[in-house]
Amino acid sequence: MPSHPSPRADVSQSESVVAAVVVPDQPEAASDIATLRRRADFLKAAKARRAGTSGFLLQARHRDTGEIAEAAVRIGYTCSKKIGNAVARNRAKRRLRALAREVLPDCARPGWDYVLVGRPAETVSRPFAEMRDDLHKALDRVHASGSRK
Predict the structure, then answer these.
(1) Which CATH architecture has domain 30-143?
(2) What letter does residue 106 receive in the DSSP assignment?
(3) Exposure letters 115-125 (e unless 16+ CB within 10 A, then b)
(4) What catalytic activity is recorded (predicted)?
(5) pLDDT tens across 68-77, in order?
């Protein structure tokens, strides 16, 4: 029979594993991004500026100075049943969240709320690199001074 290590050996090994686990700090900009939760915030964004792409629709609004927010930038995600069943909607939202995590820390402006709306078939199937380029272009259009609303 193989010999088992002593209980003391297990404790020291687990302590070293715990000590070896290091959680990296998030970048400053990423920590200033919060998720929209209230319906009223989504409705306000829907009435403001928008930029459509083939993969998604970006809605954005600059918050009033009197509005209190938990973060400098807030982002919301929505995918209707037109996208498909729950599996397809969740996959579309996961892709939109990954897209926002990658692009918004560098391109988002403080004091703005953004909503990414998924499009049927395109949000799930469009290549991620193209969606990333689309989001950069949509943010430029939304932040342009000549945008409507």
Answers:
(1) 2-Layer Sandwich (3.30)
(2) H
(3) bbbbbeebbbe
(4) Endonucleolytic cleavage of RNA, removing 5'-extranucleotides from tRNA precursor
(5) 777 789 999 9
